[in-house]
């Protein structure tokens, strides 16, 4: 198993860091990174780790935010708007829902 | 250890992981599938092909097609009609179907969960015999369209059968997992089309239910994108259509009315099924109707493929409708699909293949696996290993990079006040459960969301009274809460008001879906006071399940005793035949010796001649009376024991040892 950082530090990472991609990563790179990180963090691949759910959820949230052009722009904006620590933690809660409400018509 | 089960409407298959691959477990007769029949009689239960074969003689006490009633509400007219058409006796209590059978001289009633538990126990015993170990962690494949109630009913059946930590997997996902296991190269290779992401439509058509899903496969990573089922579409619709036309033929040509004869109807259904399967490889099939009537000789009828297609054109329409529903429920189009994977016995029918091919206009390759019937069970067995069974062992190398990412099929959400929806800001939660006529369904987790996942949504509180909210959780696609499935509700009281301009919400609701598909909903107010609820939709109480489990154990024990008696009887029979043969041989030997003594042996006697013959007779005598049968053994050694572990040992001990 790869050596991993603690849960707290993991949740503080920016979405780019979570996926291990650069800030100009394109759609193809994002998907590759998502698949790789899913294999690393999915609870089925970490049967002993009670935090795997949380880690995987974070990976998924990072991918879903960055693959959507508008949400990625909003996320980038929110990072620069705050006086940013270089590691770029923006969300107090790991799971804040996106500003647009999910709806049936997705 | 775990084992994978494909619990079909018409037949079941079970697979285990062995020597680096999943393998199908055979039943006692060497069949690769166990028909989903349970027969009750005065001397015990029969399963599988034996139960199916004796159906005609025991029509009221042979139960089949139970999967369709599992977790279904009997108030549903479709379910009620289907139940009333079954040849076994049924009734209903508290919204659920009940089956009445005569068993061991008593009238017994069983709910569908108990019947399925019996089937699961039977499959588990087959696996135990196959592996020589105890196995209690099943992975059961279910149609993606199974509701939470149907899934819970299956989990309840596992509880009743004494099976621990069951996992459910969508049958199309299991098939995709098996396909990825065999079709993906060991190492990524950009030149190999199998190592880049492929979008595949999986179609699993069984006897009673058809499911379809779109999955992305990249190497060992299987990601379900969208899935759907038609719970009333399958091969047995063809069978019903054929048997109906056979009944009409019998009536008009031979004056035989089978409409009030369940035995003949069941017989016709089996003949129809056989003919339909024959038509998958042959252009025409002959149906022998002789067994229908003892009075008249009925000539066989021949049906052709065209006739079969003509009987049920609606089935192909329904199939294409199911495939199209995947595109409606997602952003994919027909052109995105790179391959179509067909699994399930019914996809062998040429009509299915040609209709799917025509729909995809021939450009998309239609693939299959070697044995279409077994892909689901084999995939479920793979999933069992991925879920960490057998415990404490390293993951097989081939599975190290395999992962299934599955999705929720229906949206999950809460009821909110209709008046608040179009306003800016968060919707308002109702204050009590009685306000559903003015509420609408607000989605928190949209369908097709990969789980595990967590979503949080802010809500406001109606500014009257004691500031209470009622969080009502629903699952479904309708804007009307009542048209969706109700999963549970809870209240949060004395919610503090939030000062204007504050960025805190009055109430935030979190939905958590864990990796085992279970849902926890929690709500908290601005002071972080929190209440949560784990969704449980089970119909049976813990006490009911415990009673059923005890009953099931008693019947299993009875079956074990019966099996033991049967084995002992057969062993004794074999022993007697052996004894008779030895005695005959002894008789011949003694007779020969006497003849020799009175003839040649009466005059000149050589020592060595005499010695040889003496030894021969002694040897025959010794063989004729072997000290095996119950000599030198305690009766207790032979009796079966209640403890299953020591029981499996007596299985291997031969009853008749030779002590020479």
Automatic annotation (TrEMBL), chain B:
Residues 639-660 are annotated as: Disordered. Belongs to the heat shock protein 70 family. It holds the Pfam family HSP70. It comes from Coprinellus micaceus (Glistening ink-cap mushroom). Keywords: ATP-binding, Nucleotide-binding, Stress response. This is Heat shock protein 70. GO terms for molecular function: ATP binding; ATP-dependent protein folding chaperone.
